[in-house]
Structures are given as C-alpha cells and as structure tokens.
Amino acid sequence: MTNTSTDVPVARCLIGGKWVDGEGQLADTLSPVTGELISRVRYSSTAQVDAAAQAARKAQKEWGKLSIPQRAEILVKVLDAIAARKDEIAGWIEAEVGTTPAGAEAELMLTIPVAKEAIQDALRFTGVTQQTFSEDHPSRRIVVMHKPIGVGAFISPFNFPVEMIFNMVAAMIVGNACVWKPSEACPYSPSVMAQVITDTGLLPDGLINIVYGAADVGDALVRHTNVGFICFIGSSPTGEAIARAAGMKRLLLECGGNGPLIVLNDANVDAAVERAIHGCFFLAGQICTASERILLQSGIHDEFVAKLSAKAKALKVGDPRDPATDMGPLVSKSTLEKTIRHIEQAKSMGATVVTGGNHNGMYHEPTVLIGVTNDMEIAREETFGPVAPCIKFETLEEAIALANDSDYGLVAAVYSESLSSAWTVADALESGTVRINAGTSDWERRGPSGGVKRSGIGRELGEEGLRSFTQTQTLMFHID
C-alpha cells in the first residue's frame, strides 16, 4: 500500500542560515519496509547551489580567523547537541534506510565520537619549523603551515545518510566551510541533523549549507569556483565522474569496495564466521566495507561454509522495527535487481547456493554460495546485497593473487593464528586497509581510512584526514 497523503515532511535547503524550499522537482521517499510515502524533497536549482557556495565562502572568511581551540569549543557543543537528540535523528535513519534501530544508533554512535576525535587531532595538528640548507644565509628559517582550503562540497550516500558530519567537523575544525548534498534517496534524516545543528545557534550562518538533487546538482556543486575540495562517499562510477569534473581541486573520494575476507587453515574458524556474518549481512550487505568475497583455504573450507550457512539461515529477515529482526530490506530496486542478477549469473557458471537465494519484495534472504570463481560478476563487482560468495584456494600465493585480482582496494581482512602468514598476506594485498583477525567492517576510528585503485583517493580520520582538508603553505624568513 502506498500512502498518497501530502501530510509528510519535506526536506528543505539550508542556505546562508535560512531554510528555503528547493526550486527544482519534487521527489518522494518511499519506505523500504512498507512502500509508504514517508518524506519528500524538492531539489535545488543551480542558482541555489551558487547561493550556497557563496554563503559558505562568506562564512569561511570569518570562521577561518578563529583559533583551533576557539573552533573546538564551539564544535564540541554542537556535537553534544546532536548526541542529546540522537533518538530523533536515528528514527529518521531507520525510516528512510530501512535499517534496524541498532543499525541507526550504530551510525550515530560512530559518527559523534569520530567527529570529536577529529577535534582532538586538530588540537595537536601543527606545522614545522626547519633550518635552512643555505650556506650563504645560515639564519634563514622555513616554516611549514597547514591552512584551510576554503569551501568544501560534501556528497553523501543513502546507506549512512548522516555520518558525513564527521568529515564536515574535521573540515570545519581546520577552518573550512561546507556545502552538503545528501543522498536524494534519504533526504530527511540529514535535514533533521542540520536542524539540530542550526538550533544551537553556535555556528555562523552559511558555515553549513544543504542542497538537494541528482547528478546535475552534484555537478554544479563540484564545478563551482568557490568550492576548493570535494569529499564524496559513494559508488566508483560516480566518484570517477566527480574526479573528471573537479579538475585541479582537492579530492577525498571513498568509493566502492570488493573486500576479500581471507581465512587460512590455521584460523579461529568460529571467530572468522562471526565477523563474516557481520561483514556480509549487516545492513543487508549495503556497505562499502562489506565482505564481498570470502576466500577460504581448502583445509577449513567445508567447516567454515557449514557454520556460516547455519548462522545465515538463522538470521531473521523482516520488519526492522521488530526487535527480533536481524536484517531488513534492501533500499532500492536497482540494488535488489543487481543482487539477483549476480546470484543467477554465478549459478549459471557453476556456483551452488548453500542457503538463501530467494527474495520477497525488497527483502532478500541471506545467501551463501560455494564454487564461486573470480571470473563471475559476483566476485568482480560490488554486489551491495546480502550475499557471501565463497572461493576456495590452496596456497598463500593463490589467496594473494585472487584478492588482488580486482579493480577495487578499499578494505581486506585476514584470519590466521600465524603472525608470519598474516603479515605475508596483509603486506602483499593491494588495499587501503587490511584488518588482521577482524572483519572487513570492523572500524577503527583512529584511522586513516581510504582506498586504492577504483576504491578512491585520499584518507579520512586522524592526521591524514585533517591534511585532506588543508593546503600547505611554506614561509621563508630571511633574517640576515
């Protein structure tokens, strides 16, 4: 049943401290759970994108004059305000994404501490003073400074609609202003988040702006002359389009993944199975750090598959509002169709479904396949669905070759009780992050985090993350 009522909230644009209606088309957000209309958003015009970028530039000039401790005091209070109203924000994440209450809370319970870590990192983020190499001017000194870039464009995905705020805080603490384009698929939870921020009255008008829209709005934002850097989380094709449009601007792109979870013969199989369940089926597999491939050494292959299949079959799929539910629906029909296509293509090439494989509406069963090979679509592309494709291997060299035979390199994981084997594999993997005896989706907020190959450019978190939002300036003091 589809609710056709107009009595639903409409996400609005935030430009220069004022909430305004978008000037573009009106788009509906339907619940992945019930199919009912739950929110709407009116897209921004390119003129509104221009106004937001100009407002950000104006606000940044004054914000940039504050010291980092002054900014820190303000931003900590803002984050505390978000924490105080986290249940309100989480409720909209649940509604729009179709995740469980625990999943929505997990997003906020990661986002807020990570943002506060960025503030603490900035308080310790310093430049360098160096002596000269000049023999003619021995008293000359070189000072290296990290200065704000100016205005950043922040483009966020549907699966974690508000977590982008931690990158925005990292950018603001070092002196930048923000124009945020949330996903048009989940527009209202970011709007609620921004409303919480503006309600504090602590940030200058225009320091955070929100615009909505599809590719044309994103393109106008990326190309705007006031925008000096782009922070994007999303698919690799969109990231590549942004990189082409951005020209010489600074890029922080966290794109798709095809993360291998490698389990060696000497691994703790039970521990690896537990993390594979999380890596494959958390948020129905709709996460860039999902365990998209399970590489199993032959000695533990059958035991691992049996235990993984039993646990996958026991997961309760259904309404995420039910406390007993483990996994909710997929958010979009395109993701569902891709999941189905990958499974069917793998079966046609010799793979076998051990458990799952079916769907009911937007709900897809947790699925385990064996006999998967690296030439199948399910092993080469990012499925973004609740699937565990298992690939058998014999030697460490084969595991490394299989893992690296991918266009992606966001995250990988290795399970082994041997330090030597774990190091050998991890050191050889072409991946921005490798986790040892932990799952692909086990986050560590001390970072840095980011990908290689088609998985992205740049790094989030820690000092590396702060560098993404600053430009280096060298001063030379010629004293004598």
Describe the structure.
It is built from 15 helices and 25 strands. It is α/β, with parallel strands linked by helices and 480 residues long. The protein has two domains: 267 residues, Aldehyde Dehydrogenase, Chain A, domain 1, CATH 3.40.605; 186 residues, 3-Layer(aba) Sandwich (Aldehyde Dehydrogenase, Chain A, domain 2), CATH 3.40.309. The strands form seven sheets. The protein has a seven-stranded mixed β-sheet with strand order 15-18-19-14-13-21-22, with helices on both faces. It has a six-stranded mixed β-sheet with strand order 10-9-8-11-12-24, sandwiched between helices. Strands 1-5-4 form a three-stranded mixed β-sheet, with no helix packed on it. Helix 1 packs across helix 7 and helix 13 runs parallel beside helix 14. The protein is globular, with a radius of gyration of 23 Å. The N and C termini lie far apart (80 Å). The N terminus is likely disordered.
